[in-house]
Amino acid sequence: MLGDHPIHPVLLAKDLAAAREFYHDKIGLEILMENDDLPGLKTEDGIADIGFALFAWIVDPGKNALGIMQLKG
Question: What is the C-alpha separation between 45 and 39, in angstroms, rounded?
């Protein structure tokens, strides 16, 4: 049943750099470094500044994307 529906998990992080280091270096997930700008979304070094937070994406070996968000302030 769940396999029939896409899910979009988001991990909140107080330290985005530490979260990226953990998931990339320790677990071996690939960091999405695409800097594809969309209307209202600009990325730099794979990190998007969405105003109230910073957002990065990582990809597991099965090509599933996982978003990590660090709230500002």
Answer: 18
